[in-house]
Amino acid sequence: MAHISELEASLRPPAMEMPPYPPKVITLASGEEMVVRQVERDEVPTLLEAIYPLLWVERDFYDIVGARLFGELLAYKRYRVKDEYVLAGMIDGVLAGMVNGRLVDGKTGMSYHTLTIRRGLRVGSHLFAAKMEYHIEHCGQEEVLIVAESPIGFRRWMIEYPLEKRFEVQHELGGVPSWVLPSATYYNAKPRLVAGTRPVPAELLKSAETIMLPAEETVVRQVAGEKEGKE
Amino acid sequence: MNPVYIAGAGMTKFGRSEWSLIRLASEASRSALHHANLGEIPVDGVVVANMGAARVNKQTALGSALVDQLALYPAAAEAVENGPASGASAFKVGCQAIASGMADVVLVTGVERMRVVNGLEGTDFVASLSHPEAEYIYGVTLPALAGMFARLFMDRYGVERKHLAMVAIKNHLNATKNPYAHIQQAVTMEGILTLPEAAVNNPPIAEPLHMFDCCPVSDGAASVVLVSEDVASRLGGPKVRVAGIGQATDTHAVHDREDPTDLKAVRLASEKAFAMAGLAPSDIDVAELHDAFTILEIAESEAAGFFPRGEGHKALERGETALDGPLPINPSGGLKAKGHPVGATGVAHLVELTWQLRGEAEARQVKDAKTAYACNFGGFGNNVVASVLQREAK
Amino acid sequence: MSDKVYGAKCTSCGTVSYPMRAVCPNCRNETFERVAIEGEGKVLTFTDVYALAIDYETRYLRLAIVELDSGQRATGQLLADDPKLGMRIKTTIGVVREQGESEIHGLQFVPA
Description:
The structure holds three protein chains of three kinds.
Chain A: H1 6-11, E1 24-27, E2 33-38, H2 44-51, H3 62-77, E3 84-91, E4 94-103, E5 108-116, H4 123-138, E6 143-146, H5 151-160, E7 164-170, E8 177-182, H6 183-193, H7 202-207, H8 216-224
Parallel strand pairs in A: 5-6
Antiparallel strand pairs in A: 1-2, 2-3, 3-4, 4-5, 6-8, 7-8
Chain B: E1 4-11, H1 21-36, E2 45-49, H2 53-57, H3 62-69, E3 76-80, H4 86-99, E4 105-113, H5 119-127, H6 142-157, H7 161-175, H8 189-194, H9 198-201, E5 204-206, E6 209-210, E7 219-228, H10 229-235, E8 239-249, H11 264-277, E9 286-288, H12 294-303, H13 312-317, H14 334-338, H15 342-357, E10 371-378, E11 383-392
Parallel strand pairs in B: 2-3, 2-4, 9-10
Antiparallel strand pairs in B: 1-7, 1-8, 4-7, 5-6, 8-11, 10-11
Chain C: E1 6-10, E2 16-17, E3 32-36, E4 40-49, E5 61-68, E6 73-78, E7 88-99, E8 102-111
Parallel strand pairs in C: 6-8
Antiparallel strand pairs in C: 1-2, 1-3, 4-5, 4-7, 5-6, 7-8
């Protein structure tokens, strides 16, 4: 690693030991296989390129989720956020969605965002579950604090896991009242909500080595609805 | 009764649209009108099919609105509401105008723009067709009624979840050949049923029905131009005749049905349509059924008379209803994959069948299709309109 | 009036309409007397609904169509842990929906 100045070092948060996320593969409804793996700092620019067109899509809160995620990914890359992780799902090497969060301490996780690019195949549900799996099973945490920008999207998780209210805690995302997923609830929900097999076969993992971007037009169309119909 | 012909058919892509309700209707209408190529022949009437505009789009008097958009005034115009069977009901009304001799050219357009409201609001709006005191207040939704129907039907006739999955797989595959379909994404048995990940890929909606057993919520519009025999002759071109239409109703509350697994209204409506056409189910070359839920495709295929009771899922399993089978069902992709803008669906059936009978269905063309059948299922099976179309030799 | 659910019994032929009607489907008579929909019976069919309306925050709702021993059918919420087709139930009245501030009462079915 390049030598960093004392000042730079002081602007970086101290880092906790974070176990790597072991990649897994999930077969989607279409029969396609999605590889879920952790994202390295040098891959962040690719993710930023994918998010950029969504920054002005108001529908389904993509603009604020995109904007916040953009900042969080940059902060991860530039060492300005403590203990953040990023996971991505790829189908045939093409980015299908991403999730992120950070570890507050050994006991508590803070879930940040979930962004789905390839819609209609429950990619968001799979990736959100992978996030919870990381916090609770791999990092050994006791609970994860969760909020969301979109009420409709959030309602599904709130009811499905189910999540509990922890409203006295202000979530880092704007200080809004937190919900929480305790580890016991996670394990109860696991058979229903968490899928995937390990290890990922070598060939498949290799195909997911480099994150490829879907065409911008595809991203916007998938996410924001038909391009036809814009006046 | 004078003969009625379909001279033009058009539709918008189904899915999520930024277009307004009336813009959707007018795009489908213009497409059908261009297809009909009326030239100087005037349009006498416009009938619009729609279920939810007053509630979700806060707009009423759609017939008048569309007439203005298309500059067809002073043509007669009105809207028809019959829940999910609005489309075929509007079609029936248009046919009656021509059959009675009151009109020579009628434009029938079905339209729905539901995605302006969220899924909860949309579910609630559709649930409003259930009985307010005996069903709705209990949290009954259309999927709930379908789930209860499915459980009993499956138990009685030995239909399994894999058969429901076969309907979804077939219709999704057909839709990949339909540029107008909402969902153009093939699905597999492993992905939606047999693998452990199917639990997440295909979560329960109203058991035993899961996500891939239920059609999506779609925006869209579909339109047909109905003409008299005289106009059909003047236009030249292939003649698709409306050979028969039948409609039947049943009790409002599903629990009140004589036999809750019997789609009696489908049977009665179909019998009437076939009787008017002088045809039998065995004469049909291609059919568009109302698979708002996969179980309904199986049940309707029996009630319409294509297969004996309890045999529909076996015919499906043998591939008889696939695009290359002896009786292709839902070549368009069905409601399941083509989509279900509620008011448009009944008309979209007829658009697909018109294209099929004219040899214009491209990658999904059913070879030599001459006679076609459609079933538009209103309420939860308590108001059904069945139609039979026939291509006339030149 | 939240203690019972009522159907309409034809004063001429005794046929019960539930939900109520204005005209008897059996004899076309147009006068009725109120009759409670209650008693024991069996589950005809049921479902666990996950796609719920906005008034509900449970993960799923268990609904059923039952056939009472009187022959009368009804729709309601099934409060049974291990539902089976044909299982014996009896009717009860409970809160079936909350719309804003108001609680709506209706039929619930419990194991008999």
